[in-house]
Design goal:
Elements (H helix, E strand, L loop, with lengths): L5 H12 L4 E2 H7 L8 H13 L3 E6 L2 E6 L3 H13 L5 H10 L3 H15 L1
Antiparallel strand pairs: 1-3, 2-3
């Protein structure tokens, strides 16, 4: 899985934050306004995200409405899985990651692992 470009990430943030499918206009109106973006640019980004299977779409009248295909957490987990698979020693990479977790996150991980054993 490849990461997202800057504008793709901003668009996905909008989709992940929404409670319903959004049209291109709704996404455009929700994006940060520090840069002027054309409607067609956002439409192209959403079409690309759909083609890459990051977003699904449904017809709403004459427009498409988009929603993420997976949650933000599922996307982050997939990125972590891909990152672990890039090295020749997955266990060493995982160990290095765990060793650098803040204590509270390490405790959460331990609790999750213990819960899975039950």
């Amino acid at each position: 899985m490849k990461g997202l470009g800057e504008l793709e990430a901003q668009v996905m943030d909008v989709l992940w934050s929404a409670t319903e499918a959004l049209t291109v206009r709704q996404v455009l109106d929700t994006l940060p306004q520090e840069r002027h973006r054309a409607y067609t640019t956002v439409m192209t980004v959403l079409d690309n995200l759909h083609r890459k299977d990051f977003a699904q779409r449904e017809r709403v009248g004459r427009a498409w409405a988009y929603r993420p295909t997976r949650s933000r957490a599922a996307h982050a987990a997939a990125l972590m899985t891909d990152a672990l698979g890039t090295g020749d020693d997955r266990t060493a990479a995982l160990l290095h990651f765990v060793e650098h977790l803040p204590p509270d996150e390490a405790a959460q991980l331990r609790a999750l692992l213990d819960r899975e054993r039950d």
